[in-house]
Amino acid sequence: MLVLTRKTNQSFMIGDDIEVQILGIDGDQIKIGIQAPKDIDIHRKEIYLSIQEENSEAVQEASLEKVINFNKQFKR
């Protein structure tokens, strides 16, 4: 893990086209701004993990449905 120290209004780059700027610090909360291309999804980690879990469940359900449909073809 890379650990950086930044002050308000300072920023850092991720790759060539993602800029993360420190907008403000209030107690134990930090307000950040992220400039990135529109085709890059940005989510809080808990939302990202929730999306990944939902996608995994959807794939499992779709796979189960395919197996059931495949088996129905041979039960005729």
From TrEMBL:
GO cellular component term, pick one: cytosol
Signal peptide positions on this chain: none
GO molecular function terms listed in the Swiss-Prot or TrEMBL record: mRNA 5'-UTR binding
Main location: cytoplasm
Subcellular location: Cytoplasm
Xref: InterPro entries: CsrA, CsrA_sf
Keywords for this protein: Bacterial flagellum biogenesis, Cytoplasm, Repressor, RNA-binding, Translation regulation
Record GO biological process: bacterial-type flagellum organization; mRNA catabolic process; negative regulation of translational initiation; regulation of bacterial-type flagellum assembly; regulation of carbohydrate metabolic process
Family, per entry: Belongs to the CsrA/RsmA family.
Described function: A translational regulator that binds mRNA to regulate translation initiation and/or mRNA stability. Usually binds in the 5'-UTR at or near the Shine-Dalgarno sequence preventing ribosome-binding, thus repressing translation. Its main target seems to be the major flagellin gene, while its function is anatagonized by FliW.
Subunit architecture: Homodimer; the beta-strands of each monomer intercalate to form a hydrophobic core, while the alpha-helices form wings that extend away from the core.
Protein name, entry field: Translational regulator CsrA
Gene source species: Scopulibacillus darangshiensis
